[in-house]
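re: ur question from yesterday

yeah so i grabbed the chain u mentioned. its 365 aa long if i counted rite. heres the sequnce exactly as i have it in my notes:
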Amino acid sequence: MNRVYNFSAGPSMLPVPVLERAAAEMLSYGESGMSVMEMSHRSPDYEAIIKKAEADLREIMNIPDNYKVLFLQGGASTQFASVALNLINRAPSKKALYAVSGQFSGKAYKEAVKMGLNAKCIATTKDTNFDEVPVITRDMVDQDASYLHICFNNTIYGTKYSYIPECGEVPLVADLSSCIISEPIDVSKFGVIYAGAQKNMAPAGLTLVIVREDLLGLADETIPTMLDWKTLADNDSMYNTPPCYAIYMAGLVYEWIKDLGGLEKMKEMNEKKAAVLYDYLDSQSYYIAPVKAGSRSMMNVTFVTGNADLDKKFASEAAKAGLKNLKGHRSVGGMRASIYNAMPYDGVVALVEFMKKFAEENPKD
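ran it thru and got these structure tokens back, copy pasting raw so excuse formatting
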């Protein structure tokens, strides 16, 4: 078996023990005689799978009892509209606040504007090409607003909030797609957390929403049923057929994290990996790390040579060396190493060794 180091930003690599267990259970899950892919979501076997997945997630993330956990479809992008529709009525002003720190938070803001809502961008770093996350202080958050939306980790630009913004009584809504379950986080500081699972948690097809119970039931009666968090919560994520296999896989990932020692251990491992790469980037001048130190992501590390042709050659040669999917997002170019939970330490070491070799063999003019 010739496994490569897959630095894709999503769908991304999954832990080998998880894949091995899924393979062993592919034809028959337990004594069921069938694959989870074939299993009715109303069957006792599957009900046990989804309940255990939720219980394990609650344990590793320390999710308070007054929060609902929803396993949904539609990707994080569907939640751009769902957040607005579910929360805009929370305050009489019907004002929605957004901090734009990259492409996805920008799309969320544009979705609210497209829907004709009273949406306001209170902070952005667009003028500096999103090289850091914007500063958000308590006095910037209008207390008559329905919510404040942020993207906690920006996959494309490689930035992350090093703090949780203080919002007063205004619920903080955060897209955690690229950093979910990578380290401990105080869920109680957020009104809503949502995440596409395909970056750090499961195969594509699953979207996680964690919502405080007092924020349910605020939507207009005209909200599409499949976007109404209360309906989905009242039906335990099974108003319709959920993404069964992706939930099963997420459950295996949660078990894997528990076996490793939980999110404190996961953070320790991720910090160690990220340090190897950032320490090298800071020690030389061939590659440029565009993100300011205080906003650097542990999950997505971006860098460039400053020469588009060299960047293209780097990604091509790296792929031949078994370091796959290092090409940066098409909107920014350069390189991006997504070093999610499943990326082993040795993969980051191999990347740094390749970077050194490439720099020696491809001097700049």
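noticed a couple things. The radius of gyration is 21 Å. also The chain has a mean pLDDT of 96.
anyway ttyl
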